[in-house]
């Protein structure tokens, strides 16, 4: 055990902890400010991840390693990943406009926020100054953080624990109900699709050459050529065909036919 | 340094999160700001545990995380539903419930 | 002068327990006929006749029973039906009072009423709504009986309003005629004025004496505690009520229009019974008027005024029913004069009321018979020479005519003569004045009635081309004959030995028969006869000697013009009441619309407007709400800090 | 950054006193050795994978650079480093650059808590063959894995291109899903070992490797380990034939190399974790462990056993890639959510019951009866309620002749050709 950790368990702060704090606290505040200020939602999420990881580090210095790991796994790994996931589902380009639609909202928010921060700091200073922290070492009683927390969790807080687990399951079910969409037609299996394709016959039966094959260009949006030299439009995915930044299938066709 | 600095930092992060809730329009970012506020509270809870010399603060922080996870799950599901219906994730666009 | 009324009434026993049937039978019949619908059509008129006849029989039985009580036995019998308004401090019983006064009215109402019912069978034979007619007639009978049998003012008021309702319904019986509908409305509205007076009087009674029962009020009126001014006020309000119901000046105008109703209605309600309710009210409230000379004086003035007004109006009209209506006003003026003169003369007023009930009903039925014969023509200028075509009608009508002009020995002679005598006997200048007016009224009565007779039954025939006059059916003639007999005999029989006066004594006090007469009775009687004959002669001179023009002559005196317009009664009403009323109503509407509604609506608009403005804060923007939440959090934190610091 | 702090400030465990006592130079040595080991393993793995798969596919594989082509990995690495660092125009630049780092660094950090051997003496210092240990070491590895996903997701998103985004989405969903299954499969080990610390878990396996009593957990861990590392047959985020190359389509040169590095380091890490948790860690396999009262479990020998087990597992990765076709995405998710997680939950219930009964001092027979009978009952009852799967084929789409699908012959010429060919 390092001296730092022992002291943290006993409440007093050390130089190591101070170094960690003064290094990471600005990072956390900067990340939080960035979360509020950046336009891109994904950047905001990454900045929030920075804040969360900083907090996880603080938890370790405050003798709460289990909470630190849970913070990383649950918050950073699951919750924030869920955010990113939804962000990507909702749209790749989801930047906020800079124009504030509610009159006076920003000004009032910043003013109130500053006032609140000042009040909180004043309250904390008034309430805590001169207080000597005891540290959690006594509470852990040599069993270690994980065991001590587990014992508390499954004895005094067992009902709260069960209640939160029920809440979590309810939330999961609720999310499923909210986002579930009943398909109107029975979903075709892979087998059925293949049989249908065969029954339909024609040129779609054999696998098409991959995009770019036989082409004079190696981009994925370049359609494949069929053995007779004509292009295979289906070899380029639809969303690439409609993309404005790239040449269209028709353009390539025209190019191939030439003058 | 004093343990109080953790609390000051927590207050600061909480306030920033609150202001973020007020000024951001993207529902998901608003949600993130709420998570920031919860995290700030967790930090102060852990610090309180250290000051008071027991583990209850850590336990409560643990519960906060679980409840936050539940909240995020439902909240994001709602945002998804709203987005499907309205093609917008802006909290200002979901303003039908008014006078 | 004491009234036994003040001493309380004996409880009704034996025969007198049938009293309630007097009211109940017609009421039940009315209910059956009005609610039964068309199923009762075939026999409705029979039931309608049976009810008043049965009531009449009961009345006769009770008359016998009451006359059988002599000496020490009270002739005022009170039947307790049920406790009506049992409120702490205000207790009203539904009690029926059977005393000589009410019994007299019961007999008049049921007797004349029965005859008119029977007459109506024939008169209304071709009317599709005859059953309804009978139902409403029965309703009237029931209400009128309730009015006269009530032992307190509140129950009386119920009957009072009941007859008002029946009158309204029956005047407007042919409501498809706009004139009938308007007349009904007018009668109702004018009656409301009087009813208001009555209701105010009742309220004042309650406020003053704490009770509305006759015994309580009369005892209060006699007690020394009663304030003279209050009694006068009650008396004047009662007079107002009486004026409304009895068509006395200034509320007389409705009666002429009320002739739009079917003739039996005019005969029953607007001649014989309902219009006498005012007289009844004054006579019944004698205790109050006895205690208030001022109120009495006003009653006299009203009576005298109406007496002359009615007579003058009667001289000018060509409509046979309206002439009779004006005559009714005039005759009721006599009665009011009589009851107004006060103690000792009530019985004479009642006597004239009874005789008038007979001969006026008789004449109305005769007029109905004439109209029946002449295709409902009412204009006397289209009549003439009917005596040969309708001999029965002529004869019976003639009886009524002789009675009303006070020809000996017809009924009117005895009653009218006594009123004039009483007026003169009042003494002093007012006595001479009232006596002279009454005498002049007698002359005018003779004049217009003679004019009516001449224009209707004598002279050349001025009938419309399609008129084929004929005698009325027997069902109509029989009542006429009976009433004619009454016209001839009633006065004599009732005055015989002062029977009526004595009979009525328990109710209205003793009559003053003997005393210092201003003019000797015999001389006065002769004078009255002479005056009446003079009036008749004048009528013959002015009307009978030359052909009656078919069209109303226009070059007539201003008095005639005025008389043709009811002496500007309507104009007066219009100027004094209607126009100001309209202005008041408009002002009220304006005040209500702009003031009251304006205040209310303005307040509502203020609330609504401010709410709408406050509602704007409900923007739907979650961020705005969150902002206010943060503001609240800041406020709470600041408050906590302040508390800690403080 | 947080990892370093974590490692330095571990608090708690009763048996962890030996950690955190190393002098600074020893820490540096250990760290460098681990780093070099991971780099070398990666380079060797790339070569080995290509060679082995080549052998499986009956082709030689790379054999030109160095003996048996062994330097091929090195050559590839050098080539990638020297190539132009291409940054596409539309990308989100900060995240695009950050993503490979986020992917790689946690992969290395995880290995810090893997015990390679017992306590040995290095330059006179008694020290465990492990950089550090934590009371929450296994969770730490999971945490690092979940941070590593950020690299993939951010790479896919910042590329602003459809295929990478799809790959990133798949990856995010996949890692979240399989992290649950992985965590559940580890829970059984925690129950048996009574600790989250890797060194203690290894110590607890001195007699019996947990792969035997917790065999279902072991299998589930192996499956979710492959899903977690995005390897075939679960390599959906970078499925070449569907998504070109998945999340790193738009990456080139050294950044691309870092993704590759991260993937192979992760493979090594999860293999090492499997060894640590289930296969006895550095303990010698059974017959050898009995040799000379366990002398082979002391000193530097265990490093050999540890590396051997890790390489066997790594070979398994390659073997699977050469053998199994890629799963369809919905099948893959169904496997995770509908099979692995429920099965893990049931299995944990059973293990917990076992442990509780054993701790209470029941005999093994009693324990088996108490756990087995209710379980059998549950299975019996459940079998009544499970629906029969509907395997009836759809007649409407049944191929017409002989059970083989035949195209509809609409083209007369084609029909004629067919006729001719029949003749």
Characterize this entry briefly.
The complex is a heterotetramer of chains A (about 260), B (about 100), C (about 650) and D (about 425). Chain C is mostly helical and about 650 residues long.
Task: Summarize the helices and strands and which ones pair or pack.
The complex is a heterotetramer of chains A (about 260), B (about 100), C (about 650) and D (about 425).
Chain A: H1 3-9, H2 15-37, H3 41-61, H4 65-90, H5 105-128, H6 137-140, H7 145-153, H8 158-179, H9 190-200, E1 224-225, E2 231-232, H10 238-241, H11 249-257
Antiparallel strand pairs in A: 1-2
Helix pairs in contact in A: 2-3, 3-4
Chain B: H1 4-23, H2 27-52, H3 56-86
Chain C: E1 10-11, H1 19-36, H2 41-68, E2 77-87, E3 90-98, H3 100-123, H4 130-149, H5 153-171, H6 178-209, H7 214-222, H8 228-246, H9 253-257, H10 263-272, H11 277-284, H12 286-290, H13 293-316, H14 320-341, H15 346-373, H16 391-404, H17 411-425, H18 428-457, H19 474-495, H20 499-508, H21 521-544, H22 558-564, H23 569-615, H24 622-645
Parallel strand pairs in C: 1-2
Antiparallel strand pairs in C: 2-3
Structural write-up:
The complex is a heterotetramer of chains A (about 260), B (about 100), C (about 650) and D (about 425). Chain A has 11 helices and 2 strands, in the order H-H-H-H-H-H-H-H-H-E-E-H-H. By secondary structure, chain A is an all-alpha fold. A two-stranded antiparallel ribbon of chain A has the order 1-2. In chain A, a hairpin with a 5-residue loop joins strand 1 and strand 2. In chain C, helix 14 packs antiparallel against helix 15, helix 15 packs antiparallel against helix 16 and helix 16 packs parallel to helix 19. In chain C, strand 2 and strand 3 form a beta hairpin. Chain C is mainly α and about 650 residues long. In chain D, about 65% of the residues lie in helices and about 5% in strands. Chains in contact: A-B, A-C, A-D, B-C. At the A-B interface, helix 2, helix 3, helix 4, helix 5 and helix 6 of A face helix 1, helix 2 and helix 3 of B.
């Amino acid at each position: 055990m390092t001296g730092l950790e022992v002291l943290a368990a006993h409440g007093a702060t050390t130089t190591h902890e101070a170094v960690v704090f003064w290094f990471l606290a600005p990072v956390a505040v900067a990340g939080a400010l960035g979360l509020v200020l950046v336009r891109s939602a994904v950047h905001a999420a990454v900045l929030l991840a920075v804040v969360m990881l900083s907090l996880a580090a603080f938890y370790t210095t405050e003798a709460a390693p289990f909470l630190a790991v849970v913070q990383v796994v649950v918050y950073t790994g699951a919750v924030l990943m869920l955010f990113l996931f939804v962000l990507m589902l909702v749209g790749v380009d989801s930047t906020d406009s800079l124009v504030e639609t509610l009159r006076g909202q920003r000004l009032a928010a910043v003013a109130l926020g500053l006032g609140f921060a000042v009040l909180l700091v004043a309250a904390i200073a008034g309430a805590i100054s001169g207080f000597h922290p005891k540290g959690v070492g006594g509470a852990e009683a040599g069993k270690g953080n994980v065991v001590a927390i587990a014992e508390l969790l499954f004895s005094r807080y067992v009902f709260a624990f069960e209640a939160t687990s029920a809440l979590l399951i309810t939330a999961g079910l609720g999310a499923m109900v909210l986002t579930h969409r009943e398909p109107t037609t029975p979903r075709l299996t892979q087998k059925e699709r293949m049989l249908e394709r065969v029954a339909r016959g024609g040129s779609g039966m054999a696998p098409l050459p991959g995009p770019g094959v036989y082409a004079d260009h190696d981009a994925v949006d370049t359609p494949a050529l069929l053995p007779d030299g004509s292009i295979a439009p289906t070899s380029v995915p639809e969303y690439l065909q409609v993309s404005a930044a790239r040449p269209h299938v028709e353009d390539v066709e025209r190019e191939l036919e030439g003058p | 340094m004093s343990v109080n600095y953790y609390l000051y930092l927590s207050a600061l992060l909480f306030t920033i999160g609150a202001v973020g809730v007020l000024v951001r329009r993207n529902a998901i970012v608003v949600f993130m700001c709420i998570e920031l506020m919860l995290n700030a509270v967790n930090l102060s809870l852990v610090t309180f545990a250290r000051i008071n010399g027991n583990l209850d603060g850590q336990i409560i922080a643990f519960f906060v995380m679980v409840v936050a996870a539940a909240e995020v799950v439902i909240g994001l599901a709602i945002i998804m539903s709203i987005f499907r219906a309205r093609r917008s994730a802006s909290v200002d666009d979901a303003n039908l419930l008014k006078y | 002068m004491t009234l036994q009324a003040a001493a309380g009434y004996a409880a009704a026993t034996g025969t007198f327990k049938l009293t309630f049937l007097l009211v109940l039978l017609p009421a039940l019949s009315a209910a059956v006929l009005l609610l039964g619908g068309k199923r009762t059509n075939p026999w409705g008129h029979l039931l309608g006749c049976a009810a008043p006849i049965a009531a009449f029989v009961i009345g006769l039985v009770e008359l016998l029973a009451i006359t059988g009580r002599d000496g020490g036995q009270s002739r005022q019998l009170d039947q307790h039906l049920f406790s009506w308004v049992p409120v702490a401090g205000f207790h009203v019983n539904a009690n029926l009072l059977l005393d000589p006064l009410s019994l007299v009215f019961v007999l008049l109402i049921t007797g004349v009423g029965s005859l008119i019912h029977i007459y109506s069978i024939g008169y209304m034979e071709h009317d599709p709504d005859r059953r309804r007619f009978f139902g409403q007639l029965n309703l009237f009978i029931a209400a009128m009986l309730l009015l006269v049998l009530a032992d307190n003012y509140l129950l009386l008021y119920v009957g009072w309003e009941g007859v008002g309702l029946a009158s309204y319904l029956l005047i407007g019986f042919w409501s498809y005629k706009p004139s009938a509908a308007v007349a009904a409305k007018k009668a109702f509205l004018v009656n409301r004025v009087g009813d208001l007076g009555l209701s105010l009087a009742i309220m004042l009674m309650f406020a003053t004496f704490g009770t509305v029962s006759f015994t309580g009020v009369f005892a209060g009126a006699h007690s020394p505690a009663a304030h003279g001014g209050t009694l006068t006020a009650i008396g004047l309000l009662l007079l107002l009520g009486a004026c409304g119901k009895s068509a006395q000046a200034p509320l007389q105008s409705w009666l002429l229009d009320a002739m739009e109703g079917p003739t039996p209605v005019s005969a029953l309600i607007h001649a014989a019974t309902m219009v006498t309710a005012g007289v009844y009210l004054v006579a019944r409230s004698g205790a109050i008027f006895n205690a208030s000379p001022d109120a009495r004086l006003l009653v006299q003035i009203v009576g005298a005024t109406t007496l002359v007004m009615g007579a003058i109006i009667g001289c000018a009209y060509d409509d046979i029913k309206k002439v009779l209506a004006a005559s009714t006003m005039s005759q009721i003026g006599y009665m009011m004069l009589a009851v107004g003169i006060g103690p000792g003369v009530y019985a004479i007023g009642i006597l004239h009321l009874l005789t008038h009930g007979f001969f006026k009903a008789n004449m109305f039925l005769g007029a109905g018979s004439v109209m029946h014969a002449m295709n409902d023509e009412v204009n006397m200028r289209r009549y003439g020479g009917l005596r040969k075509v309708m001999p029965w009608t002529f004869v019976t009508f003639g009886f009524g005519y002789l009675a009303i002009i006070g020809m000996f020995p017809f009924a009117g002679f005895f009653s009218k003569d006594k009123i004039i005598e009483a007026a003169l006997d009042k003494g002093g200048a007012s006595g001479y004045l009232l006596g002279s007016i009454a005498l002049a009224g007698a002359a005018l009565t003779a004049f217009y009635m003679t004019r009516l007779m001449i224009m209707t039954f004598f002279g050349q025939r001025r009938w419309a081309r399609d008129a084929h006059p004929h005698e009325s059916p027997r069902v109509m003639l029989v009542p006429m004959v009976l009433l004619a007999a009454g016209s001839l005999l009633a006065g004599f029989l009732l005055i015989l030995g002062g029977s009526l006066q004595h009979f009525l004594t328990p109710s209205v006090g003793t009559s003053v028969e003997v005393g210092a007469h201003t003019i000797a009775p015999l001389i006065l009687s002769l004078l009255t006869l002479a005056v009446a004959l003079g009036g008749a002669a004048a009528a013959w001179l002015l009307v009978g000697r030359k052909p009656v023009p078919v069209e109303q002559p226009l070059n007539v005196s201003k008095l005639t013009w005025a008389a043709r317009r009811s002496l500007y009664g309507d104009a007066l009403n219009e100027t004094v009441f209607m126009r100001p009323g309209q202005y008041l109503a408009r002002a009220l509407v304006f005040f209500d619309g702009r003031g009251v509604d304006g205040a209310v609506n303005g307040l509502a608009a203020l609330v609504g407007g401010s709410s709408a403005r406050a509602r704007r804060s409900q923007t739907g923007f979650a961020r705005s709400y969150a902002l206010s939440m943060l503001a609240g959090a800041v406020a709470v934190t600041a408050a906590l800090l302040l508390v800690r610091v403080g | 950054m947080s990892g370093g702090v974590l490692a330095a400030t571990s608090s708690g465990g009763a048996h962890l006193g030996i950690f955190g006592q190393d002098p600074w130079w020893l820490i540096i040595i250990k760290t460098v050795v681990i780093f070099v080991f991971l780099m070398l393993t990666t380079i060797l793995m790339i070569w080995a994978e290509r060679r082995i798969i080549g052998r499986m596919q009956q082709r030689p594989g790379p054999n030109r650079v160095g003996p048996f082509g062994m330097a091929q990995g090195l050559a590839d690495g050098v080539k990638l480093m020297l190539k132009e660092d291409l940054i596409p125009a539309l990308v989100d630049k900060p995240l695009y650059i950050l993503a490979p780092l986020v992917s790689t660094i946690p992969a290395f950090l995880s290995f810090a808590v893997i015990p390679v051997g017992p306590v040995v003496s290095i330059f006179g210092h008694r020290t465990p063959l492990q950089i550090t240990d934590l009371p929450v070491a296994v969770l730490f590895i999971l945490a690092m894995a979940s941070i590593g996903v950020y690299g993939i997701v951010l790479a896919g998103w910042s590329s602003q291109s459809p295929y990478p985004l799809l790959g990133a989405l798949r990856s995010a969903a996949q890692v979240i899903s399989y992290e649950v299954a992985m965590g559940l499969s580890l829970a059984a080990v925690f129950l048996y070992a009574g600790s989250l610390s890797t060194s203690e878990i290894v110590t607890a396996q001195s007699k019996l490797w947990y792969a035997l009593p917790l065999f279902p957990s072991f299998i589930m861990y192996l499956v979710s380990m492959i899903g977690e590392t995005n390897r075939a047959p679960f390599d959906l985020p970078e499925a070449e034939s569907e998504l070109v190359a998945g999340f790193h389509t738009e990456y080139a040169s050294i950044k691309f190399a870092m993704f590759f590095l991260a993937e192979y380091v992760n493979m090594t890490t999860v293999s090492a974790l499997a060894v640590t948790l289930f296969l006895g860690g550095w303990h010698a396999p059974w017959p050898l462990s009995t040799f000379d009262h366990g002398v082979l479990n002391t000193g530097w020998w265990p490093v050999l056993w540890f590396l051997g087990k890790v390489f066997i597992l790594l070979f398994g990765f390659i073997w699977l890639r050469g053998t199994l076709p890629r799963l369809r995405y919905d099948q893959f998710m169904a496997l995770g959510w509908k099979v692995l997680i429920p099965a893990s939950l049931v299995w944990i219930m059973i293990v917990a019951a076992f442990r509780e009964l054993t701790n209470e001092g029941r005999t093994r027979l009693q324990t088996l009866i108490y756990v087995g009978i209710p379980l059998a009952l549950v299975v019996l009852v459940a079998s009544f309620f499970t629906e029969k799967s509907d395997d009836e084929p759809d007649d409407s789409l049944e191929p017409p002749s002989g059970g083989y699908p035949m195209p509809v012959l609409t083209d007369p010429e084609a029909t004629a050709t067919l006729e001719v060919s029949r003749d």
